User: Fold this.
Amino acid sequence: MESKLKSTVKEVLGTVIMLALALLVGAVLVVISGNSPMEAYSTMLRGAFGSAQKICELFVELIPILLMAFGISVAFRAQLWNIGATGQFTIGAIAAAAVALYIPVPSGIAIPLSMIAAVVAAAFWAALAGWLKNRFNANEVITTLMLNYIANCFLLYLVNGPMQDPETDLSQSALVPVGMMLTRLFGDYRLHSGIFIMLIVTVIMFFFWKTNFGYRINLIGQGEKVATYAGVNVKRTTVMTMMLSGALIGLAGWIQIFGIQYRILSGIAGSYGDIATIVALLGALNPYGIIAAGVFFAALRCGGNSMQRMTDVPFSVVDVIEGLIIIFVIAKTIVNNKTLGLRDKFRRKQGGKAHVE
Amino acid sequence: MLSNIFSLSFLVSLLAGTIRLATPILIPALGQIYTQRAGILNLSVEGTMLMGAISGFTVACATGSLWLGLLTGIVVGMLFSLIMAWLSITVRANQVIAGIGLNILGAGFAAYLYRVIFGIRSLPAQIDSFQQINIPVLSDLPIIGQIFIQHNILVYLAFLLVPLTWFVIEKTTFGLKIKAVGEHPKAADSKGISVYRIRYSAVLIGGAYAGMGGAFMTIAYMNSFTESVIGGRGYISVAVVIFARFLPSRAMWGALLFGLASALQLRLQALGAAIPSQLLLMLPYLATIAALIFASKKAEFPSAYTLPYSRLER
Assistant:
């Protein structure tokens, strides 16, 4: 028990060192761009945590990031590389907006209906890649990615065509009915009641990996042979895993429509797909890690936005830091394993010797 | 409308566009044949192409020499893929995760470089890109000349790389070693082939081709850099390799297929077709999925595909 705690502490410490290293490289890039890194990072810090409003904004960012990262972690645990979060988010958002705009029912019915539409649409969009993998052995990395581009083209078509707001020339739909918008919790701050959905999902995720389904997903991640020996229907579980993954991501799309955007517009998914992927990986695909990484990245994004507004530092520095973090963390894990592995071998050798003597 | 589609001039410009648009997919795909044959799935082609695109463009801008720009794109592509090689071969990381990370890094770094070097401007920086070469008589030939002999020099270079890649992989010892480390690294190692060195070379060659493909986009296809200049071509080229079952000649046909899908979209849009342009934009991506559906079942992946090698393991 103690050694487990020790290794966790070591693991966390290692990750923190890698984060610091990435921020250090970021500082060098800031200097090269002709700015002061102290100023840039202090602006970022203030931009992320500086006031009640900033902290509310942090949670606004955290909601889609966490939900999507949980969705991605479900697929990644099964070694299904769902890179299609952007597309699944977009499809969920489109379905949600379509229900809100075109189905004339009272908002009491329209709200759950639009949520179901978003979740189901995104689940099927993701399951498509799972089915293509089962049926045709098509690599899911490529198919989910291509489905991102296709979803984006579809969105552009809708907001410039059939769903375009007749009042404007902008690439966006009309506003959803006011009655469907999620309530804001603190006056004018953008933080909305969608945060409760995020909290509920977070709690569920802690229990999920102990359930039968969660267990089966982990088994698939051990390889097809292992899963089959354990009596898991690999093909069916593959599709169901992708559905669950897409469903959580679609839920994030739904929340974003009714909590923040109130309409669909071009590029609605932004870079949430990429960030959530990093958060899931950095969080080692477990709920604790994902929460910690999610807060860190939400702060990085919020702070980065402030930094770009207040200083001359380009936002792309934040993107570079994100990329570096993944690479450093990958390198770190393996370095750990290598040294641990060698030490084990050394111990075994010594143990063996002692026996002989 | 329909009569326009079946007219000769439409067909000619469609086919010429097909060849031109196939090039930036063909070049990285040929490079990935080396990489994937050696057993490594490098998904960071997209990021590598962006790095090649920005560095090639910058140097071409600064020196006025397009060839120097191209060379820079190739070198930067190799340097960037060195990270992939290190992560996948030495660190033995999961290749999918490493690829995702490098793509984010490449996209961010390319955007950063553009901003730092060129600043914020209302009009994008522009250069005089590679011009089409005109060969007297040949280029003026009706139809044939218009389709095949009115491209810039890099397009021809790209298609010359097809037989070259085939020759290296099928007819040289180096090619044999690449296939050996992709199929059975343990056996290759026991025969005295350095698995690490061959795999590093294969990833670096792939990076060189990807960097060249990226530079092609900014200094030969367009004459400026945008953050979306690659637009998924890196991923498509990885798909083309699987579609082509790791064979250069098939990769050429695969690239031409995607070129056709892209050209069709552009030509129909230019004609003012009744189909909305955004839906036509889906064509190359749909074609990629369709290609994977038809090819993946039959594709014989190298036995050690995506598997890192270690002497310590049995």
Summary: Residues 8-37 of chain B form the longest helix (30 residues). Chain B has one domain: 7-119+143-295. The mean pLDDT of chain B is 88.
